[in-house]
């Protein structure tokens, strides 16, 4: 009886699989110099009269509606008998009449000329393919597998991607579902490829754009980062990992993926200490996302809805904690000294506290509004918003020190991250809620984190940095506290020979008395502002020569009209923090410091 049931069950499964639609893509490059990728999508096993195909409107890891369908051209469909009719029913959906065809071919071109780690770019030298902006999916069928065959342009010979290679099929790769496909960027060209092994995993590095990098140094240092991060979780989830690196004259930024990442770098900065550390910090950040975001994730970030925004209040954990850990791991790996790590923390705190928006927007709200604010900044953004990267990294810092202090060095933030990974990714196989993350942190710390959440996550109170640094026998002070410097409160830029206001700082004299963005500054009092690159320095020098409480007359041109605005100079509110060791720190404080810095 049992064997009969099993046979029936296996027959049903086999029938279901054989009846499943099959999807293949071919990507070619007929005109790479004109920045086009040519896509052929074949769908077989169709039984329905109509098929809806959709293009994602965003790509995971980058929280902005990018409207990828805007780049699609020359869309047409064929069946066995010729062309098939279709209608575009909304901005990113095409409805196709199959006319009883079980197999259809959809051809279209994608214009690819935006240089970033999130968007496709094609020219005669290479193609970077960001799959969410290239490949259509059948509506409601994201779980379907697919294959992708790359047909390189005639002068290209290499392909780098985290996708699984299909045995015996040249340049063909498979994805178990569309989530995996969209999370697997592809580099095609003549990139410089080398690899290293760390945590038992082969890591491929694909360098496009040249550069003065030393392969052996990168292999050694990147392996150290991998080793340190894997130690926290006790497991590396990769079978293989790919770093796609785009080297430009001035480059930066990164985007995490399931078993790969895309990094932007400055090609000739590798041979400087600061340039190399900046690159390794980016490596550290994106690699840590393997665990934090790609697997341990806020519950809203998967399964994804590719049609609209996916809102979460927890990007301060997903990105902010990763920003904290990127420097933690370069320090643990011996790539920067503890002193430099601490100095960088002081600089980051200064940057955070110098942004007026820190007193306007909570980090929880900043996470939720990433879709409309973080990726769409305007001239008032510094006054009204805060980065969930910078504020989140500071919350990670104080949680780390609080847990180490509370547990007398028995636990730290590492233990929270590992426990959350084990509980929600491994065991429950789902994302976490805000309250679940808080509960785990409290469980490991042994006490409530209500004040941290109320004051710093959901609230706008200034973090009591000294409280937490004191746990480790350190103190933080504002070195600018005693400086009384007059402050106008504008940022300017030279545009076509005119000194133009680009930002006005909240609470400054310029803000209070009515200077505007886009005003052209002609003079301050009787001092004519130079219309050269020295103009801004001249203006600052003139302001510095005055005193707090003085009034100055600023002559501007606004909308073609001359105006004179009297501005009361206030005290420059900028802070500049430094962190130093407390003399005579106790044994307990030194124990916290050693545990925190892994000394």
What can you see in these coordinates?
This protein is α+β, with helices and mostly antiparallel strands. Helices cover 32% and strands 27% of the residues. It has an eight-stranded mixed beta sheet with strand order 5-4-8-2-1-12-15-14. A hairpin with a 7-residue loop joins strand 1 and strand 2. Helix 3 packs parallel to helix 4 (273-288), helix 4 packs across helix 5 and helix 10 (413-427) packs across helix 11 (434-445).
Describe the secondary structure blueprint for this structure:
Elements (H helix, E strand, L loop, with lengths): L1 H18 L2 E7 L7 E9 L5 E5 L17 E8 L2 E3 L1 E5 L2 E5 L6 E8 L9 E2 L4 E3 L7 E2 L7 E5 L7 E4 L2 E2 L6 E4 L2 H5 L3 E4 L2 E7 L2 E8 L6 H19 L6 E9 L5 E3 L3 E7 L6 H16 L26 H18 L5 H16 L9 H6 L12 H4 L3 H19 L6 H15 L6 H12 L4 H8 L7 H7 L2 E5 L7 E2 L2 E6 L2 E7 L4 H5 L6 E5 L2 E2 L6 H10 L6 E8 L2 E8 L1 E2 L5 E5 L5 H11 L2
Parallel strand pairs: 1-12, 18-19, 19-21
Antiparallel strand pairs: 1-2, 2-8, 3-7, 3-11, 4-5, 4-8, 6-7, 9-10, 10-16, 12-15, 13-16, 14-15, 17-18, 20-21, 22-31, 23-30, 24-25, 26-27, 26-28, 28-29
């Amino acid at each position: 009886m049992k064997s009969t049931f099993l046979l029936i069950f296996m027959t049903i499964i086999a029938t279901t699989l054989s009846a499943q639609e099959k999807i293949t893509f071919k990507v070619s490059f007929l005109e790479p110099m004109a920045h086009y990728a040519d896509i052929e999508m074949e769908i077989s096993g169709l039984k329905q009269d109509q098929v809806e195909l959709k293009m994602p409107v965003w790509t995971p890891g980058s929280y902005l509606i990018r409207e990828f369908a805007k780049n699609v051209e020359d869309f047409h469909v064929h069946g066995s008998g010729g062309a098939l009719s279709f209608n575009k029913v909304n901005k990113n959906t095409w409805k196709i009449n199959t006319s009883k065809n079980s197999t259809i071919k959809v051809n279209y071109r994608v214009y690819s000329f935006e240089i970033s780690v999130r968007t496709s770019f094609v020219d005669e030298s290479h193609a970077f393919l960001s799959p969410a902006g290239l490949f259509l999916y059948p509506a409601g069928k994201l779980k379907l597998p697919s294959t992708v065959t790359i047909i390189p342009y005639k002068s290209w010979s290499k392909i780098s991607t985290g996708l699984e290679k299909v045995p015996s099929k040249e340049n063909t790769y498979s994805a178990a579902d569309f989530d995996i496909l969209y999370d697997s960027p592809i580099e095609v060209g003549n990139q410089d490829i080398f690899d290293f092994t760390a945590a038992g995993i082969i890591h491929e590095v694909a360098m496009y754009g040249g550069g003065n990098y030393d392969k052996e140094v990168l292999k050694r240092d990147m392996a150290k980062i991998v080793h340190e991060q894997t130690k926290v979780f006790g497991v590396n989830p990769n079978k293989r990992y790919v770093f796609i690196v785009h080297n430009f004259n001035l480059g930066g930024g990164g985007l995490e993926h399931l078993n790969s990442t895309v990094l932007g770098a400055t090609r000739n900065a590798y041979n400087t200490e600061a340039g190399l550390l900046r690159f390794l910090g980016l490596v550290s950040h994106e690699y840590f996302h393997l665990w934090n975001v790609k697997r341990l994730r806020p519950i809203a970030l998967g399964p994804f809805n590719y049609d609209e925004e996916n809102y979460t209040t927890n990007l301060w954990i997903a990105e902010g904690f990763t920003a904290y850990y990127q420097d933690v791991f370069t320090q643990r790996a011996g790539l920067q000294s503890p002193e430099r790590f601490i100095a960088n923390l002081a600089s980051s705190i200064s940057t955070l506290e110098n942004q007026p928006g820190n007193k306007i927007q909570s980090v929880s709200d900043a996470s939720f509004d990433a879709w409309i604010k973080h990726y769409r900044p305007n001239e008032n953004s510094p006054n009204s918003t805060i980065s969930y990267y910078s504020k989140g990294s500071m919350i990670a810092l104080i949680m780390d020190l609080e847990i180490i202090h509370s547990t007398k060095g028995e636990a730290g933030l590492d233990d929270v991250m590992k426990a959350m990974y084990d509980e929600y990714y491994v065991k429950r196989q789902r994302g976490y809620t805000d309250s679940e993350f808080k509960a785990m942190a409290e469980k490991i710390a042994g006490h409530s984190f209500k004040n941290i959440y109320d004051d710093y996550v959901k609230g706008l109170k200034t973090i009591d940095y000294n409280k937490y640094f004191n746990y480790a026998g350190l103190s933080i002070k504002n070195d600018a506290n005693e400086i009384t410097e007059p402050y106008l409160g504008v940022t300017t830029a030279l545009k076509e020979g005119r000194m133009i206001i680009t930002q006005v700082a909240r609470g400054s004299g310029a803000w209070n008395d009515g200077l505007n963005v886009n005003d052209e500054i002609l003079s301050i009092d009787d001092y004519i502002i130079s219309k050269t690159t020295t103009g801004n320095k001249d203006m600052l020098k003139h302001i510095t020569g005055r005193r707090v409480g003085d009034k100055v007359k600023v002559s501007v041109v606004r909308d073609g009209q001359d105006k004179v605005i009297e501005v009361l100079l206030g005290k420059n509110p900028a802070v500049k923090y430094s962190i130093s060791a407390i003399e005579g720190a106790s044994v307990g404080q030194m124990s916290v410091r050693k545990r925190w810095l892994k000394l």
